[in-house]
Amino acid sequence: MKRIARKDQTMIIAIYILLALLTFSAFYPFWNGLVISLNEGTDTVKGGLTFWPRAFTWENYAIVFGDERLAGGFLISILRTIAGTAGALFMTTLLAYGLTKNYLFGRSFYMMFFLFTLYFGGGLIPTYLLIRSLGLMNNFLVFIIPSLISVWNMIIFRTFFRSLPAGLEESAQIDGCGNWGTYFRIVLPLSGPVLATLGLFTAVAHWNDWFVPTIYITDPDLMPVQTILRRILSANIVSDQAGAESFALSKIESSRTITSKSLINATMMVVTIPIILVYPLVQRHFVKGVMVGSLKE
């Protein structure tokens, strides 16, 4: 076996140490939040809580899961993530597949039109006026329709589709497949890695978004859990006119162990963990997807 030079060994050790430090710095805030959420709030106030809970309790999570508004917020977030991701992948891949056709009239114009939107946007006020004129205010569809097309994802899909062997589509046409049959039976099944990768990014964006509901939603029944959490964090569990941040005030006041900090961390864990659990499910496709376009044969 070829021996590694001492200089190379030193470099490898330094790289591993650096990666370990970066991993720790990225993971520790999440772990500390989990520890605080599992610790009694009054004990957390004493400080010195680092790696393990000193006074273990499930009470913070019991309050989070027991609140009806948070339960409704989770349902809205889940429905939005599933519907928004599925709709965006379908519409974006459909657009990308159409733009791969050389016989499409005005294909260059369409590409320039879409690329223009990457550099120039209408701004918040024109977008708000457009959403209002479409009747999407306080409407669940405001989470879905404006994000159906991602130009950046469309370009990635288009590049991937163009890399597929042309013989596949020709064979499908010989067997009687039209454009729809080729799209559903040939193109999409072969696009697993890129679909998983961009689908994951889209799902995370939908799950983490709190800004859109803040602008376009005033109905508390349509508030996703991320917006509720953001209001809790910004108001620090202080009641406002809408009462959205006061969901646990009575519980905090009546309990001797719960504080706003422990409750906030419990809520953050409940919001964060579900989307983290999605990564292992698509890891195999994700690794392949991030390499799309990096190698040419």
Automatic annotation (TrEMBL):
It is found in: Cell membrane. It comes from the Bacteria. Its main location: membrane. Residues 74-282 form the ABC transmembrane type-1 domain. Keywords: Cell membrane, Membrane, Transmembrane, Transmembrane helix, Transport. The chain crosses the membrane at residues 12-31, 74-97, 109-131, 137-161, 182-204, 263-282. Pfam families: BPD_transp_1. It is a multi-pass membrane protein. This is Carbohydrate ABC transporter permease. Belongs to the binding-protein-dependent transport system permease family.
